[in-house]
Amino acid sequence: MKIALLTSNQPRHLYFIKTISKYYKPSLVIIEKKKKSYFYESEKKFFGEKKSEINCPLIKVNQAKINNTKVLNILKKLKINLCLVFGTSLIHQKIFSIPSNGCLNIHTGLVQGFRGTDSCYWAIYKKKPEYIGVTIHQIASGVDNGAVLIQKKTKLDKNDVIEKIFFKTCKDGIELLASIIKKISKKNLKKITVNLGRNYRSKDMNKEVKLFIDKNINKIINEYLINKKNINQLQEKKEKYKWKL
Q: 3-238 is classed in which CATH architecture?
């Protein structure tokens, strides 16, 4: 099976390339260039800054150009069977319909609660830390709304800051996908459809939300950890999840 990695250029994305490549050699890597985030230095410290050696065709595109003709043509030319996506702009149908086995995305949130950007942040702001986790799903038209392959909750600590929660969630998603990639390449695994949470966009985030999170995060997480068993049981009675392949 020929696999392509579609990702970005920040430390977490380079970790994605390095980790997936340990388990399965990609036939193509496409990197969408983006600006450094406000947490770049702490992200670099968490994931490391050593770049992975890429031993396959590499395409770099500017931000929001992930769906351009250059990408479309090389996916067709190399006859890519599956795309693994992490951290790019929204993938359009003309791209995700090319691979014979479609495209899988790592979303850093449980889609039953939060979709789009900053899912970890919104889960804290809405006082629903039980929705902090990762979803690996099929890409479809829309935002984080495709069939779900597997999910995992992020292990939270009462002293976590929001950036560390996000980093841990990214790492969990990358390593979860890497651990199942050989199974994915050998057979068509069962996916499920689920009820979807709200889709948040970058413009929804503001200083007031971030201040609330920074001020209240430890209290919110601690309250969750104290009542974790009951909260999780109620959550799973309310909605369908997929913790195993």
A: 3-Layer(aba) Sandwich (3.40)
